[in-house]
């Protein structure tokens, strides 16, 4: 594969020349330091055995004790505090709209994606934890068995295989363990008291004169669910709210556009409904477009039929919106102080409604329970040959609730009493006004007598004027109904069998080793998703009184559908809007009629349990991954030609098979209309890869006039994939130590990531996007574009899109009384599309360059400083692009992005995949898929400083020892190039949310005696831009300057450990001791890097029984 590597390779050579030209200083024997006590480690960025101090690539080590004592709820929560892993997927990221991923913990090096980080266990592959994926859930790796974790922060595909684009995490497990150890921990997840509890046990024993070692491990862990209402910083319900809208031609009008409010509430869509009578508002002058214009009728005439189900004509409005008391009675809503812009401002301060921060009321941290087991044996066949075997079983269950179901229920008398009400969409249907049995009478009369105000078009300086009124006896219940939930189970099985050996001499190879092993892994994932049967919801809500008692008690409340069927209305009269024909013609339709239980949709607590049980629907999916790996390697030392040391070499081969299959939701969906995701089966698919690899390390000199030591090394790997073909990658590394006190390292590596099975073969499944409100080709969203350039581009490109359909719209402004943008044409806000795989994907390719300086000055004992500069350029990126992103990329650039536009079907009645909105809608459907497009780049500087002081040695005071460590990352640049039509167009992420310019961890440990250890750790991040200054320049009144960024963030943790005896230790601590929180003006979105959980405590005990 040909890649443009000239620039980075040139940089590598230059760095090597600079390093080699460093002056030679006096040399002496290197002092005995802790890091050099490790004779050999499994991963040092190379398969050639070497001292970690001569590792050719940047390396971070994490010890088991750090994981156990951190106080973090999960292993990934701790790893995510390492700046290089700061955007890893933590369990709180897997709640909400994601399906089947509950509780996953996926490392993400350099914020390039978890799929680009290779996770190994003892140098071997581990099966992926989600259907069709290779990303590994690191919380399935037994904590007590971990010796250490080695993190290589640079491309390493030529050494360890594909997917090591941003680096490698290798979990080294304890070998030949003998003894018994129990570790237990209780820790708060959230300051509300929700907790994580874990107990782990490990036992090992040697037999036959220590030739056989057998061990067994078991662990049980459970975690409480944390909901939005449990999170302390959300309770203030604080956010910036748009309070001034600027005209397109004058984005800076001197009035601050956004204002910070607390105690924000919303009635936009309440649990079990807010009923909005038909209404309209006077539009503000077009020079100050805080309220847009919309025509809902003509003076003196009935409201046009098309507006009965137009949500713009049934918005929240003072004197028109009704809420419900606890007893189900209705009253006009109290809006407190209403804030915001637009046709219907979303928020109010005080008054009725729910806290806006708890509006979705979904799970923030999933409830989980896990059982983990592993057994193994090591048998020394001879003095130089060792056989190993291990078996692991993990069973996990997680539960979380996402956003509740939501409906627009249109209330009017448009439907005849002897017909079924219209089901308009998955989230919209009609009910009759006059004879609904549950609607409070005062509300019914208010709707019947309702009139709507008709306003004139505004002018540049004058608002719309009241022209008169029109009869409008209709309303809309904006309702959030039953919750949607997911129950996930994940069962993992893994077996490893290997034989390894060492030898002194074999032909011309000295001090060699070999290894051959087989790994088998399997993951089975089952997901049960609960939601609502929309047809049943419509039937149950359309409740009437059975005056004749045909179904039982005269005057009893029954479902209209059941009553009409009992009355024997002719076939065809009960039109089936889901399946076609008559409802009674299908088994599902007949069951829905016969089992129907009337539902009161007016107010919380008015619903009977039997009615709710009637509504609920469940669908399930299963996924199964299989992985097989056969890996063999051979390494040793060759010749020493010039006295610098022997040449090192390693060669090997690998065969791997990845397989996935799954059952989709369609099997249980049947012919029902469900408020749930649908999707077909994942047919069994697989790929195989055959790979050969080699490494060589050439010592250039040792103890020479040129310096103490230098080594040049290289690596190469050849791939042959069954689904993408062949490819190769390589790496070049240079290590130079001019004197004992300083060393320089540089590396250049190419890497490759093959598309996963789900990216290539994933079946098309249904998904939804809110184009009705988010279409970038609506005037309101054009006005809200990030900057003036985007606004100008959108106007030009949207005009071109409209012209393709023979439409002429005025995207530059809001022309009163005119359908002047795509937004006016939507019949529903939630548009259906599909997402799935792409068989035409190509592999991703990356180049990475590192340059490191390692300082260990003899004149400062026990001090070390490591500086690692890195650059990574990832091209041919595989990314799943949302419909919203596709729609925006289509029109945001200087010209139409045809690649993105081709996935959005505008005004196209022939949507090729059979789902979508009505053909009259601006977007009738779309395809979300993984595609190869553009590139990612990142560069930065990692820094690590360590210093230890023995107080007695330095000051003559026997008061213990101090150890200090400072580690962090300076993110110089992180760019995403997402426009395949304009390769130079990029989004800069550095110093924006989740990507702090500098993030570092400071750790100070004091050990007064051998029994006590006290630690203070601070996680510090620089301020992150919410709105960048270039946007501020274009629209200087967008917000106050202090709200442009988050401000610096610091979290402080304290832990203490006491060794009761040699075998028993107790630990305790507080995490986020000073209750640091994210900036209030970030609103209600949780950013995990700011630690959203508040002050929490943990305690643990470790007992080594023997």
Layout: helices, strands, pairs:
Layout: H1 6-20, E1 59-63, H2 64-69, H3 75-79, E2 117-121, E3 124-125, E4 146-152, H4 157-160, E5 167-173, E6 179-188, E7 195-207, E8 212-223, E9 226-227, E10 239-242, E11 258-261, E12 264-266, E13 270-271, E14 274-277, E15 321-324, E16 330-332, E17 337-339, E18 347-349, E19 354-355, E20 363-365, E21 367-380, E22 385-401, E23 406-412, E24 423-425, E25 428-432, H5 441-448, E26 451-455, E27 466-471, E28 475-480, E29 485-506, E30 509-532, H6 534-541, E31 543-546, E32 556-559, H7 560-567, H8 587-594, H9 609-615, E33 616-637, E34 648-663, H10 666-669, E35 682-704, E36 707-721, E37 725-739, E38 742-753, H11 757-761, E39 765-769, H12 771-774, H13 779-783, H14 788-804, E40 831-836, E41 844-855, E42 863-875, E43 878-880, H15 883-892, H16 898-901, E44 904-906, E45 923-932, E46 935-950, H17 951-955, E47 961-977, E48 987-988, E49 998-1007, E50 1012-1021, H18 1029-1034, E51 1049-1059, E52 1064-1071, E53 1096-1104
Parallel strand pairs: 2-5, 13-28, 23-25, 40-45
Antiparallel strand pairs: 1-4, 2-3, 4-5, 6-7, 6-53, 7-8, 8-21, 9-20, 10-11, 12-18, 12-19, 14-15, 14-28, 15-16, 17-18, 21-22, 22-29, 23-28, 24-25, 26-27, 29-30, 30-33, 31-32, 33-34, 34-35, 35-36, 36-37, 37-38, 38-41, 39-40, 41-42, 42-46, 43-45, 44-45, 46-47, 47-48, 47-49, 49-50, 50-51, 51-52, ...
Folded structure, characterized:
There is one protein chain. With 1106 residues, the protein is mainly β. Among the domains are: 168 residues, no CATH class; 84 residues, no CATH class; 133 residues, no CATH class; 164 residues, no CATH class. 12% of the residues lie in helices and 41% in strands. Strand 21 and strand 22 form a beta hairpin.
């Amino acid at each position: 594969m040909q890649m443009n590597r000239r620039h980075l390779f040139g940089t590598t050579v230059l760095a090597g020349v600079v390093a080699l030209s460093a002056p030679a200083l006096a040399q002496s024997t290197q002092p005995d330091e802790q890091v050099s006590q490790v004779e050999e480690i499994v991963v040092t960025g190379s398969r050639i055995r070497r001292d970690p101090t001569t590792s050719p690539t940047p390396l971070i080590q994490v010890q088991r004790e750090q994981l156990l004592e951190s106080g973090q709820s999960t292993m990934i929560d701790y790893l995510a505090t390492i700046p290089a892993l700061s955007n890893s997927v933590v369990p709180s990221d897997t709640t909400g709209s994601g399906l089947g991923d509950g509780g996953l913990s996926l490392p993400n090096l350099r914020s390039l994606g978890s799929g680009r980080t290779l996770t190994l266990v003892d140098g071997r592959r581990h099966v992926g934890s989600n259907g069709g994926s290779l990303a590994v859930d690191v919380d399935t790796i037994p904590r007590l068995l971990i010796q250490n974790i080695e993190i290589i922060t640079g491309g390493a595909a030529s050494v360890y295989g594909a997917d090591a684009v941003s680096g490698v995490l290798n979990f080294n497990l304890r070998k030949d363990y003998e003894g018994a150890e129990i570790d237990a921990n209780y820790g708060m997840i959230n300051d509300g008291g929700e907790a994580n509890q874990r107990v782990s046990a490990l036992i090992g024993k040697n037999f036959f004169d220590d030739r056989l070692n057998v061990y067994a491990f078991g662990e049980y862990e459970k975690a409480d669910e944390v909901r939005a209402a449990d999170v302390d910083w959300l309770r203030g319900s604080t956010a910036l709210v748009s309070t001034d809208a600027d005209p397109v031609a004058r984005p800076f009008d001197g009035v601050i556009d956004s204002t910070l409010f607390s105690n924000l509430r919303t009635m936009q869509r309440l649990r079990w409904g807010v009923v909005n009578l038909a209404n309209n508002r006077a539009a503000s002058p077009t020079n100050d477009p805080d309220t847009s214009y919309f025509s809902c009728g003509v003076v003196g005439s009935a409201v046009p039929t098309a507006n009965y189900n137009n949500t713009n004509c049934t918005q929240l409005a003072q004197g028109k919106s009704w809420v419900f008391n606890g007893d189900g009675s209705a009253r006009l809503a109290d809006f407190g102080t209403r804030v915001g812009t637009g046709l219907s401002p979303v928020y109010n301060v005080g008054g009725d409604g729910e806290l806006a921060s708890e509006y979705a009321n979904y799970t923030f941290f999933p409830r989980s329970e896990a059982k983990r087991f592993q057994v193994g044996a090591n048998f020394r066949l001879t003095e130089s040959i060792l056989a190993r075997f291990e078996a692991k079983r993990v069973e996990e269950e997680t539960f979380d609730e996402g956003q509740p179901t939501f409906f627009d229920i249109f209330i009017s008398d448009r439907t005849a009493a002897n017909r079924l009400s219209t089901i308009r969409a998955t989230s919209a249907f009609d009910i009759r006004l006059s004879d609904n049995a549950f609607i409070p009478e005062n509300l019914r009369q208010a709707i019947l007598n309702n009139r709507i105000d008709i306003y004139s078009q505004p002018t540049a300086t004058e608002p719309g004027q009241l022209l008169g009124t029109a009869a409008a006896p209709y309303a809309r219940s904006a309702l959030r109904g039953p919750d949607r939930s997911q129950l996930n189970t994940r069962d993992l099985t893994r077996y490893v069998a290997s034989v390894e050996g060492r030898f002194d001499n074999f032909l011309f190879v000295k001090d060699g080793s070999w290894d051959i092993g087989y790994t088998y892994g399997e993951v089975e994932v089952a997901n049960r998703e609960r939601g609502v049967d929309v047809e049943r919801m419509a039937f149950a809500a359309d409740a009437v009184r059975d005056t004749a008692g045909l179904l039982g008690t005269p005057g009893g409340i029954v479902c209209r559908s059941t009553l009409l069927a009992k009355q024997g209305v002719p076939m065809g009269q009960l039109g089936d809007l889901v399946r076609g024909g008559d409802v009674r013609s299908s088994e599902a339709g007949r069951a829905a009629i016969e089992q129907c239980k009337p539902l009161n949709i007016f107010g919380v607590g008015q619903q009977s349990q039997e009615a709710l049980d009637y509504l609920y629907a469940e669908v399930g999916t299963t996924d199964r991954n299989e992985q097989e790996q056969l890996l063999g390697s051979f390494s040793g030392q060759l010749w020493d030609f010039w006295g610098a040391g022997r040449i090192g070499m390693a060669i090997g081969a690998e065969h791997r098979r990845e397989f996935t299959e799954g059952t989709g939701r369609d099997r249980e969906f049947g012919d029902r209309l469900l408020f749930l995701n649908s999707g077909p089966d994942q047919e069994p698919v697989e790929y195989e890869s055959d790979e050969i690899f080699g490494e060589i390390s050439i010592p250039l000199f040792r103890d020479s006039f040129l310096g103490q030591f230098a080594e040049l090394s290289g690596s190469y790997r050849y791939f042959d994939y069954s689904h993408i073909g062949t490819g190769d990658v390589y790496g070049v590394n240079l290590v130079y130590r001019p004197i004992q006190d300083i060393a320089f390292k540089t590396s250049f590596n190419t890497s490759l990531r093959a598309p996963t099975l789900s990216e290539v073969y994933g079946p098309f499944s249904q998904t939804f996007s809110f184009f009705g409100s988010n279409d970038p080709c609506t005037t309101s969203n054009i006005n809200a574009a990030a900057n003036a350039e985007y606004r100008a581009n959108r106007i030009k490109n949207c005009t071109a899109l409209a012209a393709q359909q023979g439409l002429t719209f005025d995207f530059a402004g809001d022309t009163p009384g005119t359908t002047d943008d795509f937004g006016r044409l939507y019949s529903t806000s939630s548009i259906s599309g599909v997402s799935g795989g792409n068989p035409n994907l190509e592999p991703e390719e990356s180049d990475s360059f590192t340059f490191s300086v390692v300082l260990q000055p003899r004149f400062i004992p026990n001090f070390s400083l490591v500086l690692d500069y890195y650059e990574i350029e990832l091209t041919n990126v595989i990314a799943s692009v949302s419909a919203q992103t596709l729609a925006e990329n289509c029109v945001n650039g200087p010209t139409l992005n045809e690649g993105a536009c081709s996935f959005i079907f505008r005004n196209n009645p022939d949507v090729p995949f059979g789902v979508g909105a009505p053909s009259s809608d601006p977007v009738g459907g779309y395809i979300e898929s993984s595609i190869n497009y553009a590139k990612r780049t990142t560069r930065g500087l990692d820094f690590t400083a360590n210093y230890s002081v023995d107080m007695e040695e330095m000051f003559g005071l026997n008061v213990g020892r101090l150890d200090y460590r400072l580690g962090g990352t300076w993110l110089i640049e992180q760019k995403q190039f997402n426009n395949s039509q304009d390769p130079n167009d990029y989004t800069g992420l550095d110093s924006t949310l989740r990507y702090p310019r500098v993030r570092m961890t400071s750790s100070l440990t004091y050990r007064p005696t051998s029994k006590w250890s006290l630690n203070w750790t601070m996680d510090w991040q620089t301020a992150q831009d919410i709105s960048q200054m270039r946007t501020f320049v274009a629209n200087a009144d967008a917000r106050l300057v202090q709200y442009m960024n988050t401000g610096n963030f610091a979290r402080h943790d304290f832990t203490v450990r006491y060794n009761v005896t040699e075998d028993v230790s107790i630990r305790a601590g507080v995490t986020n001791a000073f209750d640091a929180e994210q900036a209030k003006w970030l609103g209600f979105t949780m950013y995990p890097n700011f630690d959203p959980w508040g002050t929490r405590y943990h305690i643990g005990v470790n007992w080594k029984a023997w």
